[in-house]
Amino acid sequence: MIEGRRNPKAQVDVPPQTLSDDARIQQVIASLPSINEQLREATPEQILEWAIDNLPGLYQTTAFGVTGCVTMDQVSRISAQRAAKAGLTTSHHLVPLIFIDTLYHFPQTTDLAQRAARHYDAPMHVYTPKGSPDVATFERQWGPQLWEKDEETYDYLVKVEPARRAYEELGVKAVFTGRRKSQGADRSDLQAVEVDETGLVKVNPFLNWSFGQVDSYVKTNAVPYNELLDMGFKSIGDWHSTSMPGADGGERSGRWKDKGGKTECGLHKDYFKMKRVAEKKLREAELARKDAERDEAEVAKA
User: Does residue 235 surpass a pLDDT of 90?
Assistant: First the structure.
């Protein structure tokens, strides 16, 4: 069982099961203030179960950080408990996984993704940058170290666009995230259930847990986790934007150390704004490429 505050008598308003999936989601969105008030003292397990019961099209988007690993373990336990209650001899993992493979994860992260999915027998959908199954293909199109030249476009291409494509192709309406208040910055004011500008419902089951709590949980319960944690890392992203946290810094102080206060990769930013800016830059780059090809052709003719 998950440690922490428990309010077993908490009653949360839920949308009727007879509504369509879209109508159920809209009713949840319309009721967010009361839902969050009723979940304010809920344990992570209660939040997870509420989401499983009331959010159609529910997935877990994860980069296999420590909180994501705890989420997988708890969903597995809930899945097994419900199967046993129904008299079934086997259970299926109730919340499928989405892994955005940016192509620049640490090898330990991509290895963990496969190990964890097998360990929990969890269906996992892997998405890479559009048209780029590997680094070589990506860099042939965009050049090396795009994150140094244009980080916003890099974030859009390797994280935001693949995630949006996954959500549209899979019919995702809600996701579990690994965000916690203790991570600071924009995350310090998290609610248990939120909705972004696209209408995607984001559920933060462990919002009230500290790094110490999730780290202790994985070690105590033999949960598969990223071995980089044992080297001192706490927040792990792409290899080029991840370093050891500072002695006096927060949990995510090792991310984007040289980026002047950057705290998010793009998945939790305004999607439409990022899409608009990135597409403008991509159009300009394509026009510049065509102009260069035309100039080269004219020189060759001369």
Answer: no
Structure tokens at 53: 């019961």
Residue 274 located in a structural domain:
yes
User: Are residues 124 and 64 part of one domain?
Assistant: yes
pLDDT digits 0-9 by tens, 250-302 = 665 545 455 555 455 556 566 667 677 777 777 776 676 676 777 777 777 76
Q: Which amino acid appears at position 80 of this protein?
A: A
User: pLDDT grade, residue 241 (50/70/90)?
Assistant: confident
Which residue, 161, 87, 164, 86, is CA-closest to 131? Answer: 161
Question: Nearest Cα to 215, choosing from 100, 24, 70?
Answer: 70
Six-digit token string for 294: 């035309």
What is the per-residue pLDDT across 64-74, written as a single tens digit (0 to 9) for each?
A: 999 999 999 99
Whole-model pTM? 0.83
* Alpha carbon distance 244, 299 (integer Å): 51
Residue 179, Ramachandran bin (φ over 0: left; ψ between -120 and 50: alpha; else beta): beta
Q: Are residues 151 and 299 in the same domain?
A: no
3-state percent helix, strand, coil for the chain, nearest multiple of 5: 50, 10, 40
Tokens of 44: 């992570």
Domain of residue 34: give its range.
21-266
CATH code at position 56: 3.40.50.620
Q: pLDDT for 62-111, tens place per residue?
A: 999 999 999 999 999 999 999 999 999 999 999 999 999 999 999 999 99
Residue found by looking up tokens 């299926």 in the block = 92
Domains: count for the chain: 2
For residues 33-56, b (16+ Cβ closer than 10 Å) or e, as one string?
Answer: eebbebbeebbbbbbbbbbbebbb
